[in-house]
Each structure stands twice: as C-alpha cells, then as structure tokens.
Amino acid sequence: xxxxxxxxxxxxxxxxxxxxxxxxxxxxxxxxxxxxxxxxxxxxxxxxxxxxxxxxxxxxxxxxxxxxxxxxxxxxxxxxxxxxxxxxxxxxxxxxxxxxxxxxxxxxxxxxxxxxxxxxxxxxxxxxxxxxxxxxxxxxxxxxxxxxxxxxxxxxxxxxxxxxxxxxxxxxxxxxxxxxxxxxxxxxxxxxxxxxxxxxxxxxxxxx
Length: 208
Description:
By secondary structure, the chain is of the alpha+beta class. Helix content is 30%, strand content 18%.
C-alpha cells in the first residue's frame, strides 16, 4: 500500500523561520515525491508534483540566542504527487514537522537545561512566549520541555541521537542531545550559538 501521509522537507536555502521572501512555487518544488519517489518533472514528461497551496505554520521561540521568546508564523508551500496522491510540504529550515516550536528553540532549551544547568522555569521563561502569563504551577516542570527530554532520553528526538542508558537523568539526556547539536554547529562560535546552528542542521523526529 502506498504511503499517502503528508511528508515535510526543508528549503535548503532558508536560514530564518520568519524570513520575508519565500521562493516561488517552481523554485521550491521538490525534485521527487518523498512517498513514492516519482520525479517531479520527468524528462520529456508532464509535471507530476503540482502546487497544492500554502499553509500557515505557527513558530514559537526566540529568533536568536539572547533574544526574548516570540510567536510568529511562516507560510509553507504544499505539493501533491499525481501518481500516488501524497502531499509534500516544503518548509523553511528550522520548521519541524508537527511541532509549534522552532528547531533552534528546542535546541536552545536542551542546552540551557542540560549544559548550563538552568531550571525548567528559567528555560520556559527563555523559550516560551508569554510564559509569565501562564499557570505559575506549570513553571516548575513545563510539560513541553519534559516531553522533549523524554524523547531525548529515548533517542527519538534527533535522528542523529541515540537512546540514553536507563540510569541517565533527564538533565543528562538533555546534555547529551545538546552536545550532539553542538557538534553540528560552526566551530569557533560560543556553545549556545553552536547548538542553535546545529539544531538547524539536525534531523528531528517525534511529533510533540
């Protein structure tokens, strides 16, 4: 049975989750269907990946290291494969499938909690927009951070990551995941900036 579920890929030239200019429909069209592998424009044949409109995606988190958290939106392009009917979404780098927070925001949260030993409350204040207006009782744990940490420990948060030993604490799991992202960042930058860059280069799993 063919997989008709929606697939998400990144625009390789996109550096910001809120950039002003988006590529045109033809420029962003994927080379092939992620579900069935059919070429988008076979040689001598008809176009097989048709534009299927745009969708607005919410993005949460700071726009750079040291900046306050914010909530914005970005338009992503959608394409439908004629042979199999699957829908492919092409999103800017840093937009993670089925997540409200940007990849860079998740990476920064892991670094603050795992590498800098910040409290869950402090991480929430740095990452979550309008955090102070939420239930104060949630600040002690922040359930969103807890889900990321559980996935990091299980090895499902990052494709580049691996499961942690059962004895690892959630802070140790965050440290391991943040270190993995740091290794993907540009050498010479400070730790948080390297984690931020690594988060944009990483491949994310999960769906929370």
